[in-house]
Automatic annotation (TrEMBL):
This is Putative peptidase M23 family protein. GO terms for biological process: proteolysis. SUPFAM superfamilies: Duplicated hybrid motif. Transmembrane segments: none annotated.
């Protein structure tokens, strides 16, 4: 298990003993909830990590683990706090952190002295840590941002069997594939259109902690060649800070409809007006595209719209119906559950998760039955003519063209330096930016 990511924070080394003692904060008393972040000192994890009582009972002991299914704050802390102290701990976190929202897989660190809790550190997300410390008979809480080393790198890959496989061969995380699918979701159907020999290039910011890859930041530019046709996207921020992907001519990559309501899966049954139903055996119209996917796979709205219905529909099981502009309607059947907060009359944005794949209603297994209508008549979703999104305002075009030239140049230069078609390599030096 990797240690809690706390780079660039002040650290102090431990002493001897079977549980090397980390430094515990010794600061002047401060009111509860007002932990001075600039004076925080976090302990280095011992090597090797030991979770046993130290030889000296007065020496600090550090315990590091990950949140497991069923864990609660009381389960984690009760062995190390006195009667009534959990309420004080919770009160210190009020307004900073919901103590009921511990997430499975997140790392936490407990420092004790004489078996009593002195410091609790929890990895809230990839941006910051929650730190709670004992202050006499009370606790104080604060947040510490995680500061990363950021490098801009160029990646290139070729598809042999799948996009995920190509990314894996490069030694990168699956998130790269998901980012590509998101950027080109209105141009490429990553469920049906991917071909062997398709290729991609990405200019991306990577985040590192102590020289180890910790995750990805912005995709600055991306290229995807699908069946001989090249698609490109360039990230651009306007004066308000809004970030959008555009093609080289300044046209938004966001179009009226997504190519599919799922990121990655397979088509198990196509649009047909005379299909034999797999359950009843009756031949009847199937004005839908079925996508086989594991239960719980997120389902996205293919366009901006209003929720016309979400509930039970007999053979359709749990389903959602969305009304869109220009007389379009989309339906999502057999869902296992709906997205939190989804309600009739509410508005949804393109790409927003509205539910999760299931097998409710008349269904033989987990899949999404996706349907569309135009002016009340069934249409084949795969034949939908997409309408282009807006263009970048003229006042930004000069700056945008400069960005495109720079990003294309970085892609070309970095990949040319690798000497191969499929490669990843650092292009720029680390940047002092979180």
């Amino acid at each position: 298990m990797g240690s809690l990511p706390v780079p660039h924070l002040a650290r102090q080394g431990g002493g001897g003993g079977s549980c090397p003692p980390p430094a515990i904060l010794t600061q002047p008393q401060v009111p509860r909830g007002e932990l001075p972040q600039d004076e925080l000192v976090l302990a280095d994890p011992p090597e090797p990590l030991l979770q046993q009582a130290p030889a000296d009972p007065r020496a600090p002991c550090l315990i590091e683990d990950m949140v497991n299914p069923g864990d609660t704050l009381s389960i984690l802390l009760n062995p190390y706090i006195g009667a009534g102290e959990l309420e004080k701990f919770t009160s210190a976190c009020k307004g900073l952190f919901n103590v009921a929202s511990l997430r499975v897989g997140k790392t936490y660190r407990i420092t004790t002295v004489g078996g009593l809790l002195q410091q609790f550190v929890y990895e809230e997300d990839d941006k910051g840590l929650l730190v709670v410390e004992r202050k006499g008979d009370d606790f104080a809480a604060g947040r510490i941002p995680i500061v990363y080393d950021v490098k801009t790198e160029a990646l290139a890959g070729e598809i042999r069997s799948s996009l995920f496989g190509a990314v894996e061969r490069m030694g990168e995380k699956p998130e790269i594939a998901l980012r590509l699918a998101e950027i080109f979701s209105c141009d490429v159907d990553f469920l049906r259109d991917i071909r062997e020999g398709d290729s991609f290039r990405v200019l991306i910011k990577k985040r590192f902690l102590d020289s180890a890859l910790a995750g990805y930041s912005d995709v600055l530019a991306a290229e995807f060649v699908n069946n001989g046709k090249t698609y490109r996207g360039f990230l651009f921020h306007d004066e308000t800070g809004k970030a959008t992907y555009y093609d080289a001519e300044g046209n938004s990559l966001r179009k009226s409809f997504l190519k599919a309501p799922l990121a990655f899966t397979r088509v198990t049954s196509g649009f047909s007006m005379a299909r034999r139903h797999p359950v009843t055996g009756v031949v009847r119209p199937h004005p839908a595209v079925d996508y086989g996917a594991p239960k719980g796979t997120p389902v996205m709205a293919v366009a901006d719209g209003v929720v016309a219905f979400n509930g039970w529909g007999n053979g359709a099981g749990n389903y959602v119906s969305l009304k869109h502009q220009s007389g379009y309607e989309s339906m999502y059947l057999h869902l296992s559950r709906f997205a939190s907060g989804l309600s009739r009359g509410g508005r949804v944005r393109q790409g927003e998760v509205i539910g999760y794949v299931g097998s409710t209603g008349l269904s033989t297994g987990p899949h999404l039955d996706f349907r569309m209508k135009k002016d009340g008549k069934w249409i084949n979703p795969t034949n939908l003519v997409n309408i282009k999104g807006g263009s970048l305002p003229d006042k930004y075009m000069k700056e945008f063209k400069k960005v495109v030239a720079e990003q294309l140049g970085m892609l070309q230069d970095a990949l040319a330096a690798t000497g191969t078609k499929e490669k990843s390599g650092a292009y720029s030096v680390a940047e002092a930016r979180p």
